[in-house]
Amino acid sequence: MTNSHFPRELLLAIATFVGGHLMNGKRTKAYVFFLILLIWPIGVFLAQSLFMADGSPPMFGSAADIVLVFGIAVLWSVSVIQWVRDRRLLPSQGQILRFSVQKLEIVALTAGTYLLVLYAVASSVVVSHMTPAQPLKLLHWTSKPDADRMGSAPKLLPTGEGDLVLVGVIEQDDHVKSDARLLLMFRDGVRSPELKTNGIGEFEFRLPPGDWWFAGPLILGEESRSVHVVFKPAIQKPEFHVNLGVPTRKLHMRIVVE
What we know:
Layout: H1 6-16, H2 19-23, H3 27-51, H4 63-88, H5 103-126, E1 139-142, H6 147-150, E2 155-156, E3 164-172, E4 175-176, E5 181-186, E6 190-191, E7 195-196, E8 202-206, E9 210-219, E10 226-232, E11 239-242, E12 249-257
Parallel strand pairs: 2-6, 3-12
Antiparallel strand pairs: 1-10, 3-4, 3-8, 5-6, 5-7, 5-9, 9-11, 10-12
Helix pairs in contact: 3-4, 3-5, 4-5
C-alpha cells in the first residue's frame, strides 16, 4: 500500500467523520458510527428529562453540556483511530477504495454529521447559557395578567416549607431593578405573596410542597411591559414538584423587563 496520499486522506477522514470509512469500503462501519453519533445526544437529553421528572433541575447543570461535547469528541477520535487501522490493512495492490464510493454519499453523510453536531451543541450548550440580552427568549410573557393564564380570582400559595428555592434577579434597560415589587404567578390562579428585590435586584422565594406550574412573573407597576425569563440551569417546562423538607435545591431565574 502506498502512503503518498496518506496525510491528505487522514485529514479528509478527520474532517468528514465517517467519510474515511466509506473511502476504505467500510460502509457498515460508517453508518454504525453515524448512528451512534445520532443516539448519543438523544441519550443525554433523555437522561436529563428523566432526572427532571420529579421537578429537579437538569442533571449535573452545566456538566451535562461537558458530557455531551466530550462524548462527541471521543466518538470522533475513535472513528479516526479505526480509520487509520483499517487503512493500514488495505491490500497494497489496486486502487484505493474511495473511488468505488459515490461521492454524494460522503457529502451527504458529512453534511448530516455537522448538522447533527451543531444542533446538539446549539440546543444543549448555547441555548441553556444565553443571557436575556440576547434575542432568543426561552419563556416570554406580558407582565399584565389575563384570565386564561391566571384564573379569575388569584389566590395565595399555601404555606409550607418545601425543598426548592427560586432565586431571581430583575433587570431593565441593562440594569438591575432594585426595590421592585413582584408576584410569581402559577397555574389555576395561584400566586406567591408580594416579593421585593434587594439593592442588587435579587429576590428569593421558597416554594411550598406540591406541584406548581409557573405561569409567569407579574412586575407591579410595569404591567404594560413585556417580560421574559431565562432559567439556569435551563428547564424544558416550568413545572416544579416540591417536597417537604429543608431547602436542598435552588433554581435561578433572570427576569428582563422590556
